[in-house]
Design brief:
alpha/beta; eight-stranded parallel barrel; 14 helices; globular
Length: about 325
């Protein structure tokens, strides 16, 4: 059994890509997208027609609406291949506007429903700012399920659990990147690998907290830099993995054991943690890594959304 098949025994495997033609070979349950992945895809000859067709059909409409229609077009193509759910992201430029995020999410869901897609097959991705988490709370109450992304801190995870969001995506690789950059020449790759990786440790702490306290929100590790980070989180509810790393797992034959366990988490002695808005903002501010990576991630997704708009205007 290869490591990908072994991982699927413990964890739901999710493909992290806009390149849906790659999906079938890995047989993932779910798939995730973001503006950067869609931007990358539409610049390939195979996918450029989707951009051109969508723009031609809806030319003259608000650019944000055309963008959402393009995202939904990709999402529908993905859903024709996978059995589970697709995550589609709200424009990152709305990350600090609760009401606008709710409105955009409802439009995206409406577009999917117009294509005959059941609401339960879509997760709306929202940045895990306080405003984004509040938007997700409102959406969940309306039956729209959410995936809270750009999640780097325990405080963000706690607030998401309190809001009863469907799923969170802690970014393992970007946490790793930050600590590696901070350490500079002192970084010891071998010593900080696997279970000692700071991104892996972050997800493990969140997983243990959720399972210990019976929080139903699903934990999906994301943004991996290497296979070791993935195998160190075997047993996590879900892991969303880029195609190149899925390919590495599919060709690796080394044994793979469960690393995260719900039963073990329930047996831990953990303190209860809750946040109001002021407490959340202070805890996030106190975490330099999470503060920097959240802001950086929003800027990067916003920049790629802008680039996607420019491509649509030129189409």
């Amino acid at each position: 059994m290869n490591q990908l098949d072994a991982l699927k025994q413990f964890t739901i495997v999710v493909a992290d890509t806009g390149d849906f033609r790659q999906l079938a070979q890995f047989r993932p349950q779910d798939a995730t997208t973001n503006p950067s992945l869609i931007l990358k895809a539409v610049q390939k000859p195979d996918y450029a027609p989707l951009l051109q067709d969508t723009v031609a059909k809806w030319r003259g409409r608000d650019l944000g609406e055309v963008m959402d229609r393009l995202l939904v077009r990709f999402g529908c193509e993905i859903l024709s291949i996978i059995p589970g759910r697709v995550s589609t992201e709200v424009d990152a430029r709305l990350s600090f506007d609760t009401s606008a995020t709710v409105a955009r999410a409802e439009r995206i869901i409406g577009l999917y429903q117009a294509e005959g897609v059941h609401i339960d097959r879509v997760l709306i991705k929202v940045a895990a700012t306080w405003e984004g988490i509040e938007a997700a709370r409102q959406l969940e109450q309306r039956g729209i399920h959410t995936n809270l992304t750009l999640l780097f801190s325990f405080a963000q995870a706690v607030a998401c659990g309190q809001a009863k969001v469907q799923l969170i995506s802690p970014f393992v690789g970007r946490i790793y990147d930050w600590y590696k950059k901070q350490a500079g020449a002192a970084w010891d790759e071998g010593a900080m690998a696997g279970a000692n990786d700071p991104g892996v440790q972050s997800v493990r702490a969140i997983f243990n907290h959720y399972k210990h306290f019976g929080i139903a929100t699903e934990v999906m590790g994301a943004s991996f830099r290497n296979v070791g980070q993935i195998t160190a989180l075997a047993g996590c509810d879900l892991l969303t993995i880029a195609p190149d790393l899925l390919a590495q797992l599919a060709t690796a034959e080394a044994p793979l054991a469960r690393a995260l366990d719900t039963g073990a988490a329930r047996a831990l002695d953990l303190p209860a943690v809750n946040y109001d808005e002021a407490g959340f903002r202070y805890a996030l501010n106190h975490d330099a890594m999470a503060t920097e990576k959240l802001a950086e991630g929003i800027r990067a997704f916003a920049a790629d959304a802008l680039k996607l708009e420019q491509l649509m205007l030129a189409a």
